[in-house]
Amino acid sequence: QLQVVESGGGLVQPGGSLRLSCTSSGFSLGFYAVGWFRQAPGKEREGVSCIGISGDNTNYTDSVKGRFTISRDDAKNMVYLQMASLKPEDTAVYYCAATRLVQGMCSMAWQAAYYWGQGTQVTVSS
After folding, report:
1. In terms of DSSP bridges, do strands 58-60 and 46-51 run parallel, antiparallel, or are they unpaired?
2. Positive or negative CA dihedral for 115, 108, 37, 54?
3. Which of 42, 76, 96, 118 is the most exposed place for a label (fewest CB within 10 A)?
4. pLDDT per position as a tens digit, 33-75
């Protein structure tokens, strides 16, 4: 079965940090662009960040630029999302997925993603 597994979520106070991790089973993440997506209650799933194959390009949604950093370690079959200066509006279930390349750039469109995991809950609250 081809799937990804996310971990690292939790409860954090506003201004705090978390690092999310993503690994895969049944395939190697190293052959794919990978994206992080999130879905808050009552809202549509949205792309947060993505990273190209070998980390050759990255992209972030405007609301997380300067606060979140995506990275990958293909030797460990891992992709990470370092989140800092967290805000209550960052509260959501965060998903990792393989994503497509569009003109060589990774896509943050969730409709373009596949091999979804179960997600990890991130709650930012005092």
Report:
1. antiparallel
2. positive
3. 42
4. 999 999 999 999 999 999 999 888 999 999 999 999 999 999 9
pLDDT digits (tens, 9 = 90+) for 67-119: 999 999 999 999 999 999 999 999 999 999 999 999 989 999 999 899 999 99
Of 93, 88, 83, 96, whose CA–CA distance to 18 is shortest?
83
Nearest residue to 95 (alpha-carbon basis) of 9, 18, 6 = 6
Q: Judge contact between 119 and 95, C-beta under 8 A.
A: yes
* Gap between the Cα atoms of 42 and 108, Å rounded: 20
